[in-house]
Input
Amino acid sequence: MSKHQPSGVLQWLSLFLLMSLFGVSRGDVGTAARYSPPYLPTACFGNNPAQFPSSNLFGAAGEGIWDNGASCGRQYLVRCLSAAVHTTCKPEETIQIRIVDRAATSVSRPSRNDATIVLSTTAFSTIANVSADFINIEFSQV
Ligand SMILES: *[C@@H]1O[C@H](CO)[C@@H](O)[C@H](O)[C@H]1NC(C)=O
Output
C-alpha cells in the first residue's frame, strides 16, 4: 500500500502540470468590486461617450493592473470564482470588459477600494449577484 503512494502523488502532480500547460485555466486570480454611474469623465478617455462599449461591459483598473495608464482600452475576460455568500457567482458566465478608467480616481467610488478590477454595474451583475460588493475573479487579458 505505502509502496504505491509516491507514484500516486506523481500522477496527480503530472495531471496538474498537464492541466496548467494545456489551458484548463489560464487566468490570474484577483478580486472585483463594482461602481455605478456617473462614469464620466474617466482617467483614460475624459468625457468621450464613445469610450463605452455598447454592451456596457467595462471597468476601472485597480492599481495592480493600471500600468501607469497603459491599461486604458485593454480588454479582459472575467469570470466570478467565489464570494462570501456562496450563491453570489453566476459560474457559467464569462464577460469581456474594456478598461476605461482608473479605480483610484473614478468619479463614482467603487464598492471596495482594493479590488483588482472595478466593474460597471452591468458587467458585475452579468457574472454575480449585484447585492454583493466584492467577489473573487479569474481574469486574463485578451
Ligand atoms: C442576491 O443576494 C441577495 C442577498 O444575499 C438575495 O436576497 C437575493 O435573493 C439574491 N438574488 C438572486 C437572484 O440570487
